[in-house]
UniProtKB/TrEMBL annotation:
Residues 4-63 form the Phosphoribosyltransferase domain. It is an enzyme of class 2 (transferase). This is Uracil phosphoribosyltransferase. Pfam families: UPRTase (PF14681). It comes from Salmonella enterica subsp. salamae. GO terms for molecular function: uracil phosphoribosyltransferase activity. The gene is upp_2. The lineage of its organism: Bacteria, Pseudomonadati, Pseudomonadota, Gammaproteobacteria, Enterobacterales. It comes from the Bacteria. Keywords: Glycosyltransferase, Transferase. InterPro entries: PRTase-like, PRTase_dom.
């Protein structure tokens, strides 16, 4: 992990620390799994220019989600 990724990870942690979560059961490869999910929110992450692209790795480590290109 490079410095930009670490900064992205720390910023994401602080930005999402106050968001409420809820327990959700999803179907995993080995049966049902209970996870925490951000309650009622859909997060969109948009990197700004090249500086933001370097932070995306750290952001995606903290916010497990579907990635669309």
């Amino acid at each position: 992990m490079n410095s930009a990724s670490e900064v992205g990870s720390l910023l994401t942690y602080e930005a999402t620390a106050d968001l409420e979560t809820e327990k959700v059961t999803i179907e995993g490869w080995n049966g049902p799994v209970e996870i925490d999910q951000i309650k009622g929110k859909k997060i969109t992450v948009v990197p700004i220019l090249r500086a933001g692209l370097g932070m995306m790795e750290g952001v995606l480590e903290n916010v497990r989600a579907r990635v669309s290109a």
